Amino acid sequence: MTSAVSAVPAAASDRALAHFSAAFAFETDCADVHGAIAAGQQDFVLLDTRSPELYAQGHVPAALNLPHGKIVEIKLREYPMDTLFVVYCAGAHCNGAHRGAERLARLGRPVKLMIGGITGWLDEGFELEKREA
Which among 14, 22, 33, 51 would be 20 to 30 A from 64, CA to CA? Predict the structure, then answer.
């Protein structure tokens, strides 16, 4: 008997390696972001793509609030074109980070998604900061 898990065979190892290795070019995780901030090695701009109201309720320390719908070139003009942006939103149930990442990519900006968002951050046991946007 075949389960739903094995009904579709796993990809060959070389294809799986290419797929999973490529994901690191598009994503980072909460632990890596936290580690970089804690070590004073933040070589990226962290953007919270949620609303100012949600940002004020709690956000990742060092994050700037720029809702995905407001990501336009004029808001980014102070950053060199090669600045890496890392975006996040509420979590897996939210596509605001994906929308923000798409907008940044359309503007020719390097971007990664912080997988997990606020939910992942809290799941890792990290604290949120509260302040006005």
Answer: 22
